[in-house]
Amino acid sequence: MILTKTQRIAGISLTVVALILFFALKPSALPVDTGHVTRGPLQTTLEAEGVTQVNDRFVIATPVNGKLMRISLEEGDSVRKGSILAAVLPPELNTREYRDASARVASSRAVLGESIARLERAALGFSQAERHAARFRKLFSEGAIAKEAIEVAENEAGVLKKEFEASRSAVQAARFSLEAIQAQIDRTISGKPVNVLSPVDGRVLRIHEKSERVIPAGSPIIDIGDPSAIEIVIDVLSSDAIRVKVGNKVAIKDWGGDRDLQGVVKTIAPGAFTKVSALGIEEKRVNIVAVLKKYEPLLGDNFRVQAKIVLREEPNVLQVPVSSLFKGRNDWRLFVIEHDKAVERSVKIGMRGTYQAEVLSGLKEGDKVVVHPTNDLKDGISVTSQQ
Predict the structure, then answer these.
(1) No. of H helices and E strands in the chain?
(2) Which of 104, 178, 264, 308 has its CB 3.0 to 4.6 Å from that of 251, i.e. a possible disulfide?
(3) Could you tell me the residue range of the domain that residue 140 belongs to?
(4) pLDDT per residue over 300-331, tens digit each?
(5) Residues 234 and 295 in one domain
(6) In this structure, what are the phi and psi dihedrals at residue 127, rounded to the nearest 5 degrees?
(7) Are residues 368 and 298 part of one domain?
(8) Contact 221, 68 (CB under 8 A)
């Protein structure tokens, strides 16, 4: 059939109009942010605020009632063991006060005996732990045990050593307290002040009472400690604390320096305490104590820091941006870009870090995924990358 010129022109016009309508009505590609499935190291961390405190801090209190003489020491001053920190002039004793003082002498003597017993028990435990660690070192050198076993034994020996040192310091403190109370009666009669002595070498961390005034027995006067022995106390939710283990790495951030400080978890408190959050919600929190691997002289007592506890780390895992994941009915899902289309896919996720998550199945290295998917994104829709 031979078409006339008019018919040919009409057919061409209809074809052009159809093409124009097709491209005009065709939905444009949705712009999306994209990321890639990569392989590399991954950490699971727990971040929380903490404060520094001096390990083995000694709060020195007055052993008697009386008038505290003005203290000449300043915060930051170094003191030697046995040096005079303060002097308290006790009032004259009546018969009842004399009996009370005698009873305190007996009580302090009992505390000293208990402290000595704890020291002996701690010394025995430390000695056994040292021998245990020595045996493990020998077995490790012979290839009979794994490195983790000797690390656990050496860590236990280190903890027991600290307990032994703390018990020894407690004995010294109890002995000084007993000597001070025993001297109370004689000093009161003679009118001489009771000298408050330093139980250890250290520095003055805080002076509670500096001016001369009358204070009751047991009032704190001075805090003594070694500023180089700094601990970090980190309080976390009790639900998070169960994931923390002794020996976990800790990075100390936002402390004022130009680099992060490295430490390890020393102890985990066995009990929780109640803390009211900024929103007025009561929370159960647990104190995690970490120690620094290297002394930082710029970090002092009661400084605020931000701590990042490494719960788990792997050197080489397949991972995807956490922002690409969303929860499906029974699994985790994301959008993979295939031939410029978004394809919804189910994936299995392992450990999750702050920005990346481990991929156990459903993806391969190099896959391109949509990050921050919007509600407009549907399976099979055309997309264009904004990156």
Answers:
(1) 4, 22
(2) 308
(3) 91-192
(4) 888 999 999 999 888 899 999 999 999 888 88
(5) yes
(6) -60, -45
(7) no
(8) yes
b/e code 284-309 from CB counts within 10 Å (16+ = b): ebbbbbbbbeeebeebebebebebbb
Prediction pTM value = 0.56
Strand partners, 344: 335
**Containing H/E element for 117?**
helix 95-141
Burial class (CB in 10 A: 0-12, 13-18, 19+), 139: middle
Are 75 and 204 contained in the same domain?
A: yes
CA distance 299 to 301: 7
Indicate if 328 and 381 belong to the same structural domain. yes
Q: How far is CA 248 from CA 233, 262, 291, 353, in A?
A: 14, 11, 11, 16
Task: Pull the structure tokens for residue 64.
Answer: 């008697």
**Residue pLDDT, tens place only, 135-156:** 777 777 777 677 777 777 777 7
